[in-house]
Design goal:
single chain, mainly alpha, two-stranded antiparallel sheet, two-stranded antiparallel ribbon, 12 helices, 6 strands, globular
Length: about 350
């Protein structure tokens, strides 16, 4: 068994949130980063710059993340919908599944998911382990069986050797899921300019961006978008003050959100509040992908969640703040050659700030 660990820096979570416009039931994810005395006293706090994970298992998980053998017809991998150089999502409204049908929800980003208290838009899955299992067997996911996957991967001598070194019982369903989850732990995006502002680093934000954050708080957006993931830690009804669903029309089962899991009328149109981390690079927006731009999403959220038709200046101000939430991601990719089935390590570099793409170091 491998014991290669990377250690996490620790920090205090704020004990209370300001009383703001909306009342939400909170389930705050405890996150540890710098000590509280180093941070600004705000309801948002920075992503840790280091986190504990098992390196040998994460390396296997990274290979599997790009491995199309997990899908029934070898056509898609986790990375097909969760593109690491494109915000961790697929940049389309609802995406295409292995069945050729549209997926039912807008693909959420894979980055920073370990800080979410539930998975999926409707919160129907509690842990990343359960999420992976569900995707593998789903008709619109990989549409596969674990027995088939284990057989396929066991025929790969190199991969089998890696598993045997990291896990005493080698390749099996539990260990495949565990390796993928271990890799997901590494998919964090620290050091956004707003995180640096929270750590009191000088000149991290402009006056316009700080003003945007002030507007974000004063309007009440912070009541549901706070904590380490700036969301992802509570459920909220979509349409508190304005029925966007009725305006959009053509309702489907998926639009009823959490109701499909609980069968409680109170949960109709209730969804997990999405994280705003890296929001500038994860268009389109909303559970149905109907908001094509960040400006449109801000406007819709103003009407539906705080009961206010936001002015152009307010939208642009909030947008300026949201653009500071794009973090850094440092990794290499294990890209698979579809002809040979072999993997090679590829390092990619992108710039940030002007076009708000990810910064790879």
């Amino acid at each position: 068994m491998s014991s290669n660990k990377h250690m996490l820096t620790s920090a205090q979570l704020f004990n209370s949130l300001p009383q703001l416009l909306l009342t939400c039931t909170l389930n705050i994810t405890c996150a540890h980063a710098e000590t509280a005395t180093q941070l600004r006293y705000e309801p948002i706090f920075p992503i840790p710059q280091a986190i504990e994970f098992d390196a040998s298992k994460a390396e296997i998980g990274e290979r599997l993340f790009f491995d199309t053998r997990l899908s029934k017809d070898n056509s898609i991998a986790c990375a097909t919908c969760h593109q690491l150089d494109a915000g961790g999502d697929d940049n389309v409204a609802t995406g295409i599944s292995i069945s050729g049908e549209n997926n039912v929800f807008n693909t959420p980003s894979i980055f920073n998911t370990l800080y979410n208290f539930r998975q999926n838009w409707d919160g129907s899955i509690k842990t990343p382990h359960e999420q992976i299992d569900a995707v593998v067997i789903s008709h619109t996911g990989f549409d596969n069986q674990w027995s088939e996957i284990v057989t396929r991967l066991s025929e790969d001598k190199e991969l089998k050797s890696y598993f045997n070194k990291a896990y005493i019982d080698g390749i099996n369903q539990t260990n495949i899921i565990d390796a993928l989850v271990e890799f997901e732990k590494t998919l964090i995006t620290p050091n956004s300019r707003f995180d640096r502002y929270l750590r009191n680093e000088e000149n991290s934000l402009s006056s316009e961006e700080i003003e945007g954050y002030t507007v974000f708080k004063e309007l009440g957006c912070i009541s549901c978008h706070q904590g380490i993931n700036i969301g992802g830690n509570l459920f909220q009804k979509f349409g508190v003050f304005y029925d966007y669903m009725a305006e959009r029309g053509d309702l489907s089962k998926n639009d009823y959100g959490r109701f499909n899991t609980t069968n409680r009328l109170i949960d109709q149109f209730v969804f997990k509040v999405p994280s705003l981390r890296n929001v500038a690079v994860t268009a389109p927006y909303l559970h149905d992908g109907s908001a094509k731009t960040i400006d449109e999403a801000i406007s819709i959220m103003g009407k539906t969640q705080i009961g206010r038709a936001l002015t152009v200046d307010e939208i642009l101000s909030i947008k300026a703040f949201l653009n500071t939430l794009t973090g850094e991601y440092k990794t290499h990719y294990w890209m698979q050659n579809h002809e040979t089935g072999k993997f090679k390590s590829v390092v990619r570099f992108c710039s940030t700030d002007i076009d708000h793409k990810f910064l790879f170091l």
